[in-house]
Amino acid sequence: MTAALARLSGIGKIFSGHAVLEDVDFELRAGEVHVLAGENGAGKSTLIKILGGVHAADAGEVVVGGIPRRFRSVQEAARAGVAVIHQELSLAPALSVEDNLFLGRERRGFLGVVSARAQRRAARALLQRVGLAVDPRVAVGALPVAARQLVEIAKALGQDARVIAMDEPTSSLARTEAERLFALIEELKRGGAGIVYITHRMEEIYRLADRISVLRDGRMILTRPAGELDRATLVRAMVGRPLDEQIHREPVPPGAEVLAADAVTVRGRTGLLLAGVGFALRAGEVLGVAGLAGSGSSDLLHALFGDRRAEFRGLRIGGRPAQVRSPREAMGRGIALLTADRKRSGLCLSLSVAENATLAALPQLSPGGIRRPRREAAAAARGVTALRIRCRSAAQTVRTLSGGNQQKVAFAKWIETRPRVLLLDEPTRGIDVGAKHEVYDLINRWTAEGMGILLVSSELPELLGLADRVIVLHRGRLTAQLDRREATPDRVIAAALGGEDRGGTAA
Amino acid sequence: MATGGIGQRIFLAMIAAAAAGGCGGGGGDEQWIIGYSQCNRGEPWREQMDADVQAAAKKHAEIELIMKDAQNEAFQQIAHVKEFVSQGVDAIIISPKDTSLTPAVAEAHQAGIPVIVLDRAVEGDQFACFIGADNKKIGAEVGKWVVAKLGGKGKVVEMKGLSSSPPAIDRSAPFRAALAGTEIEIAYEADMEWLGPLAREKMLAALDRNPEPGSIQLVYGANDPAAIAAYWAAVDKGREDEILFVGVDALPHEGLEAVRNGYLDATFEYPNGAALGIETALKILAGEEVLKHIVLGTRLYTPENVESGGVPLD
Amino acid sequence: MNARPGGFSVSREVLFAFAALAVVLGLGSVFHAHGLFFKPETHALALWAVSGYGILACGMTVVIVTAGIDLSVGSLVALAGIVFAMGTMNAEWPGWIAVPAAVLVGAACGLFSGTLVALLRLQPFIATLAMMAFARGMAKWLTGGVKVQKMPPPATVEALNAKLAIFGVDVSISVFLFLGCVALTASFLRALRFGRYVYAIGDNEEAARLSGVPVRLTKTLAYVLCGALAGLAGVLFAAVERQGNPDAGVGYELTAIAMVVVGGTSLMGGRGGVVLTVLGALTIGYLRKILDINGVPTPQQLMITGGIIVLAVLVQSLKTEG
């Protein structure tokens, strides 16, 4: 057995009187990937933040490299060889990629002057290792989320860390990028580093893990070699109850058309983001929109919500010709949009659960512009109950909730507006298995109530499991329209790569 | 107070000037063009100075006056003087922002244009005539008056001007010197930076520090706005009757009006020399000799003498 | 009373703001200047001295919660004061015309800044910096750069300086106007949908917009409210100085911002509230009062005030750490 790179024992952490971690033991060995599994709010992120010097533990001991440590800052942890790649990215958006890579440890040359050339060379090498082909001089803020994630990983690599913790590193990566990351992880393992890996994706867990530890409600439930832990046991350990891992969709006989367009066109700065995409969504239906990054699927949802200037041909809402020129207009016509990035565009993180949950429905809840606290409280309570949001009270700040619960708050915001069409952009991104299944249940329930749902998801099994029909986009064009039986992973992927023509035959 | 609509008034004046220019100046056999440069019209005292220059010029049909306002920018004012020179005016009257105007004034002087400098001096002797008031004399006169008024005994609040500006020092030091040896003490002093609102706040603080009725006999404001603001502060505390208020400047619409209303018990004129400036310019143009330095005296205005034009103190 | 409805963290915010005020009041009871600090009149006058700035700070709070800033309020004090003074002293308008006219001028300037910020997407700092210059210029142009005054002052001016006896203590009208403005802005922020939108925009404008919040309208209204309150403050300052002064209000915007910040409202937006600002205003106002009655000279007063601002904000930052 190889030596432990890091050992945490008896760790306890309390946030505002609420125990987030209790008596947790965790060990990371050289050359292993140790997956940390658990539902959102189980304490996984807190645990690696303690390891990485972001938080100090209230109880217990942290030993890294055989020496007991009390990290007072991320920098101290980095000096001890610990790097943490956080879920919420910790890069400075206005700085360039290279400056971010070397932030706080600039390459100094003669007389302590930052050596730009040496730095750029090193930056190029790091970016190459993570497979990111960008100029190191561009500002991080100008990069898409996936690229930023890769920069974050490159930054950790640059620190020559022996202990690397990754908190859902693939949540915003495309498949090829994820593959690249997995190869990199193999390389790091061979080099003797240990990796703590947090993910909600079952395939990733079993593909990468040497050992798996499960946290639930702040306690360590089990730690086992991956080969000795089957999926059912793992899921049970995570949620504390057996869970049907299959995605279950109860088809609803489709009703009247709720939202349709003959052609939606969106112009971007460099070209067409969407080129005449047509579709029809009926009540009770889940219409999946498949496509790789840059396919325009997200743009379609934003265009339909009036958030992006678009040209519509034959746009019909509820069967009648209509226009959407702004989010307010779209909302007035019964359309709701759950955005892909809940932190950036979905939630007001410093506001409370209640304030977020009632934000979209506020016009209905406060007639005449005057707020009715009791009505709002009732609406918030309805949302908390219906979506089973786990919070101390509706007054809790959303920032302090786990990812899954935050996402449920974003859902709750729209449910109170009683939309007829729900546009879902990556509704399960970064949330745990239990929460995912709750989202699936909600989708079934709402379609049964006659709602039409347009679903964008980069997780193919999820998309195919839920969608009654699928349209596939490739660089802004419709390349396939498949019903549930036709929509096999092969055909969807082929169409997403541009291989299949509209309504064409199987690849 | 007809201060209202000065914006419009300026506008109308501009139209009138344009019309007059268009008609061509008529009149006398000899026509003098006098360039007049003000450093900052945005101060009441200088506003009054401008008005006085205009009024004096109007008495002489042969004078055509060109007025410029540098808006407190020395650089602007230098440009104005250079313009006058290239325009070939017959004389220049200038109230310079500061000594940075010295070279420009000298240049005009050497070009043979008589330059009359008002209020603030320039360096050297490259000008025709300087006319200014004497703050030290005013400070001493205030001190003399206060000692007499209080009978050599009592407590005084002094509202000083901006501590870094020479007039503030000149109006204060001789005043203090006059009090020396008497039983008058300064109960409170503050830098009101020449600003009324600040003087108001400082006066409130002074009254807070001396809460007993009758514990302050007199307030000396280094300018009238400060003295008036102090009066209103005392009104708001109900203590205006027990205190005498003395200011400096004696502008018709400000200090004198306040004396007339009984707010101020005295104000000492700080003369601007505008009328004398025009007269001096005419004398020089007529070839007469004039004094190079003219120091103006001050006048004391009290409720008793304000209607009769105050009394000169020389 | 909370800055935001409900919630554990909020009462903590208020507590911290109270702590800062308590420290200053503690200073007052130690350096009481021969018992002067314990007289009710001293406190009535302290409130009176705070009221004008406090009204500015109320409006500033709303703008700051939207993650904006309004640098123009000092100039608006001058402009509105001029309008009020010219109205009452030159045109002999009655008070019920002159006061609303001045408030309207302030609101109109706020509308202009708000439009620049919300519609043309200028940075609030820049848009209101421009308004700061414009309004100051306008005030000078209207008056030709000189003060507007009349002796004796018109009845309206003296009416605004009147006092009411509350339990035997004379309290100035402007104190009641201040309290009225506090109630007004607090109810805007708490009882109206508009208020909720203000917080949502300040915290995450993009999320608010995508939740159907009328972002442009709300932001514009925030600046209009701030401008209108600056107009009212301008009337009070002009009344108490018995003149319309085109040079009035210089630097008042910084005093107002300091009051908001010392109260604990974050310049980042989305948090804070008027109740906190009142506590901040009292902290700064009392500090000045205590320094005044103890005869501390101006230079030292400025230094101590700077120190207290830093201290108060440091204490405020503790609450976000924990």
With strands numbered from the N-terminus, the spatial order across the biggest sheet of chain C is: 1-4
N to C succession of SSEs of chain B: HEHEHEHEEHEHEHEHEHEHEEE
Helix percent of chain B reads: 40-55%
Extract low-pLDDT stretches of chain C.
1-9
Average pLDDT of chain C, rounded to a whole number, is 90
The major sheet of chain C is characterized as: 2 strands, antiparallel
What is the number of helices of chain B?
A: 10
Helix content estimate of chain C: over 70%
Integer-rounded radius of gyration of chain B: 21 Å
The number of strands of chain C is 4
Q: Biggest sheet of chain B, open or closed, and with what strands and sense?
A: 7 strands, mixed
Q: Largest interface, per-chain counts?
A: B-C, 39 and 39 residues
Order of helices and strands of chain C: HHHHHEHEEHHHHEHHH
Secondary structure class of chain B reads alpha/beta
Shape of chain C: globular
Instruction: Give me the Rg of chain C, rounded.
Output: 19 Å
Widest sheet, order of strands of chain B: 7-6-8-9-10-12-13
Q: Quote the distance from N terminus to C terminus of chain B.
A: 31 Å
- Strand proportion of chain B, as a percent range, falls in 15-25%
| N- and C-termini, Cα separation of chain C | 22 Å
Quote the average pLDDT of chain B: 88
Key terms for this structure?
heterotrimer, A: 507 residues, alpha/beta, six-stranded mixed sheet, 18 helices, 21 strands, 33% helix, disordered C terminus, C: 322 residues, mainly alpha, two-stranded antiparallel ribbon, 13 helices, 73% helix, disordered N terminus
Q: Care to describe what's here?
A:
The complex is a heterotrimer of chains A (507), B (314) and C (322). Chain A is α/β, with parallel strands linked by helices. In chain A, 33% of the residues lie in helices and 25% in strands. Chain A contains 18 helices and 21 strands. Chain A has helices at 44-51, 74-79, 97-101, 116-129, 145-158, 175-190, 202-208, 231-239, 297-304, 327-332, 342-346, 353-357, 362-365, 373-386, 403-415, 433-448, 460-466, 489-496, and strands at residues 4-15, 18-29, 33-37, 59-64, 67-69, 82-85, 163-167, 194-198, 211-216, 219-225, 257-267, 272-282, 286-290, 311-313, 316-317, 320-321, 335-338, 421-425, 452-456, 469-474, 477-483. Chain A has a 6-stranded mixed sheet, sandwiched between helices. In chain A, helix 4 packs across helix 5 (145-158) and helix 14 (373-386) crosses helix 15 (403-415). Chain A is globular and about 70 Å long. The N and C termini of chain A lie far apart (48 Å). Chain B is α/β, with parallel strands linked by helices and 314 residues long. Chain B has 10 helices and 13 strands. Chain B has a 7-stranded mixed sheet, with helices on both faces. In chain B, strand 3, helix 4 (102-110) and strand 4 (115-118) form a beta-alpha-beta unit. Chain C is built from 13 helices and 4 strands. In chain C, strands 1-4 form a two-stranded antiparallel sheet. Chain C has a two-stranded antiparallel ribbon with strand order 2-3. In chain C, a hairpin with a 2-residue loop joins strand 2 and strand 3. In chain C, helix 2 packs across helix 8 (193-203). Classes of the chains: A alpha/beta (507), B alpha/beta (314), C mainly alpha (322). Chains in contact: A-C, B-C.
